[in-house]
Amino acid sequence: MPTTVAMPALSPTMTEGTLARWLVKEGDSVSAGDVIAEIETDKATMEVEAADEGSVGRLLVAEGTEGVLVNRPIAVLLGEGEDASVLDGFRPEEAAPEPAAPEPEETPAPAPPPPGESSAGRIFASPLARRMAEKAGLDLSAVRGTGPRGRIVKADVEAALAAPAPAPAHAQVRAAPPPPAGGGEVVPHTGMRKAIARRLLDSKRTVPHFYLTADCGFDRLLAVRKELNGRDGADYGLTVNDFVVRAAALALRRTPEANASWSDDGMVRHASVDVSVAVALDAGLITPIVRDADRKGLADISREMKDLAARAREGVLRPEEYEGGTFSVSNLGMFGVREFSAIVNPPQAAILAVGAGESRPVVKDGALAVATVASCTLSCDHRVIDGVLGARLLEAFKGFVEDPVTMLL
User: Would you give the distance in Å from CA 298 to the centre of its chain?
Assistant: First the structure.
């Protein structure tokens, strides 16, 4: 009997992906474990493996198709001895496996109106169906529900998306938005850019931000860095950012109340200190994670960050390498940015923005002097971190940066 290959969930938060490339064609034989396609998520390109052996009977989704929902059939495999004739009348959506942990449907409201209609402006649909429709730009009022009492459920949305939409007689097909007035072009958004826009908009709209800035002296840090990198046999090249990540991790260990996240049920206190570090890409940015950063030395952090950053730019990071951090660091000092405020990346409760180290006049022991100083700004979710707690976290970070030998202990 033919079996279907479904769009896999390559991360816990993935709801859709882009089928970037098929590595097989119809009629090809495949074995379990063979890579058959490449899928682009909003952060990386991942491979899809065949779970069974057989031959490719039909490719259901064309290369380059965006917004393919998780668990939607993308191909059909034929079993041993089967040929394409067995696909006559075969419905891939009926043979597709159910998700491992589908979202439970809420208890239907009593006596909802007939399918396609609403009462007092309300359309009866499950939360999952609403999210899928919103993401796809689908008007739920035009969807017929097959759930209890005509309620719209996930399968109804998938069926509506799969069905060709009849265009009105007066509709005009437009392949692309018109160019802006005065010339130029409209560059389509990438999946990564859409994800960044959605997440940051949600953060600024739902997270109560506040900001704390401290000027940190970097002279001793730069001297220690130069000494360590100049040692005979040193097989590392420490960067200022490696010290920043280490200092942030140690500061979080000293103030564990700040290594937390907000939830409606209670404060989530994280057992490990996992620092996400912003890495710029051509299409946007990604935040690979240094796990247990407070337990790693500077050389280990340096090697790990170089590897993560390189693979991030190649688009081959695994989801677990960029999802689930407890705190973020964003450093724009290398671009000469003096000071900036970063946006909290939920569910994290804080992010540290590091500006450029520059020569500034300072007062030392009552006398005017020149020192290398960088302005570091901590953005906090006020639901989790109050002003005093944020100040303690930033104070601890400043202490490690200005006395970097303490990071080596």
Answer: 26
> pTM of the full predicted structure?
0.67
Q: Is 270 annotated in the active site?
A: no
Pairing, β 358-364 against β 367-381: antiparallel
Cβ–Cβ under 8 Å, residues 388 and 347: no
Q: Which residues contact 295 (CB under 8 A, 6 or more apart)?
A: 273
Q: Are 90 and 76 in contact (CB under 8 A)?
A: yes
| Catalytic site residue from 170, 189, 270, 382 | 382
| Tokens of residue 126, six digits | 């499950």
User: What is the rounded distance in angstroms from the CA atom of residue 156 to the CA atom of residue 144?
Assistant: 7
Task: State the burial class of residue 209 (Cβ atoms within 10 Å of its Cβ: 0-12, 13-18, 19+).
Answer: middle
> pLDDT for 316-353, tens place per residue?
888 889 999 999 999 999 999 999 999 999 999 999 99
| Rg of the chain over all Cα atoms, to the nearest angstrom | 26
User: How many angstroms separate the CA atoms of 100 and 118, rounded?
Assistant: 32
